[in-house]
Amino acid sequence: MLFAQMLGSEAIYEAVYADLRHGEHMGVPGQLAIPTGWRMVCMYTDNDLITRPVLQKVTEAVSQPESSVFHSGGASFDGASFDGTSLDGTSLDDNDFLSVLNDWVDISSIPAADSVTPVSTEAALLSQASDDEGVPLSNQAAGTPTRFATFLLTPLLNVRSGNSASTASGAYTICSPAVFEEGITYEIDFLKTHFPSAHVCIQDAKALAKNYLTTNGIDADSFAAYCLQAIEEIVTVAKNAGQPPELGFQCSGNTKKLDLYDRKAIKMISSERNKFKKALKDNSLALVECSSKLRLEGFALNTKRPDEIIPHITSLTGLTAWNSMVSSLTFTCDPHGNLYRGKAILILLAYRILKPVHNHDSKRSTLELFPEQYEHLPEHSIALVCAMFVIRFRQRFPGHKFPNISACALQKEACYQLVLLRKARQGASDLAIKLNQWITTRHGKGGWENELLSEFYEVFC
After folding, report:
1. 47 pLDDT higher than 70
2. What is the CA radius of gyration of the chain?
3. Distance between CA 192 and CA 39 in Å, rounded?
4. Are 188 and 264 in contact (CB under 8 A)?
5. Cα–Cα dist 118/444, whole Å
6. What is the pLDDT of residue 187?
7. Which one of 50, 119, 224, 402 has the fewest beta carbons within 10 angstroms of its own beta carbon?
8. Are 201 and 231 in contact (CB under 8 A)?
């Protein structure tokens, strides 16, 4: 188990069980003393189709989750922008080119740039995240069944032996006549107040949806189908963990049903698509236009004379008109000519993948919640970021048809950018080999995770 803990968070959550049947091979007496930090539960396995006793590791929660590299309570990538305007609409000092981003990053938690290593950068992020999963909530009475703050980091197995009071279905929440009369509102804060188990299900389903968009793109039809699937998966896990969602309100013998499959509940999940599009739209604008973002290797079109803008865009993309095709990937390159490693692209990718999921109790990023899905840098996310930049360039051409950037327009452009990305990865050229190696290497020297993190060190230190 000590070895497993050294492997990182992915290995820990895959190695937190010890089969008690193997005790005789280790010279352990039949009545095994349960070590501190472990508990005995029963686990059903597909190998022998029998529920057997196992030891489950209990992870203690970090008392100060706000010490994460990225503040979850600060401005969110799902809403904040680089456009020089704060969330309350007031103007920010344009000389402070990262005035908004400073709310996202705990600068004091970042070590000196010369101390960054491929191991230390990853460890710095993972070690500061909270461990809320599988431990009693802070307001939970002693002796009551374990309540989970999230199901995403809860092993998918039958844990009812550890929650003996659990049932397959939930219960009604007793409420006052005034609350009953007002009815059920499908909003995060309302669910958190009145239906805590349902709230955990919805917040986890929203995190699943955000991860899906990051790794699979924003196709409307497939995402709509996935939103329903996400709710079904989380509700199933919740019931299995002994924490099913509540059934609704009950008052004086009357009931009002809570339905997590209601279209209003599903809309809470599907809204992640518009949030993703809005975040890309808002945060791309300043990186394309503003001179204050030159330090981020932004394109600073507002520093060009009117007669220079179109030729400059053509040199970056090959565009000759608002509806022509991109034929150059120069706009994706870093100063060394490496494709898709321009700082502006990396920054948007980093905030999408590394920042803790907004309003999620785990205080973890999608990278930490779904580590197995990020061994490769998601192609769809790269394509979406590039697509938004290209649409911004198209808007600079006369006669363009992008008064507003719709999700449909972004999806169409992203499809073409995905084709260009995959073409760039083909062949045996040095550029293609280096691009493939970077995208498929997450950890260590030359890995994309370390490079995304390094962008923060370079910018803020």
Report:
1. no
2. 25
3. 29
4. no
5. 5
6. 96
7. 50
8. yes
Q: Which residues contact 317 (CB under 8 A, 6 or more apart)?
A: 326, 327, 328, 330, 331, 390, 393
Type of residue numbered 371: P
The sheet carrying 17-19 orders its strands as 17-19, 51-57, 38-44
Interatomic CA distance for residues 392 and 149, integer angstroms: 40
pTM over 0.90: no
Alpha-carbon span 76 to 360, nearest angstrom? 12
Length of the chain: 461
Report phi then psi at 57, rounded to 5.
Answer: -75, 135
DSSP state of 334: -
- Sequence-distant (≥ 6) Cβ neighbours of residue 252 within 8 angstroms: 177
Residue 102: other Cβ atoms inside 10 A? 14
Place of tokens 């010490």: 67
One-letter amino acid at 25 equals H
Q: How far apart are the C-alpha atoms of 315 and 201, rounded to whole Å?
A: 48
- Tokens representing 442 are 């997450």
Closest CA to 243 of 184, 205, 195: 195
CA 105, 106, 110, 112 torsion: positive or negative?
A: positive
Q: What would the pLDDT profile of 8-43 be if each residue is shown by its tens digit?
A: 433 333 334 444 444 443 443 344 556 555 666 555
Which tokens go with 61? 């929660």
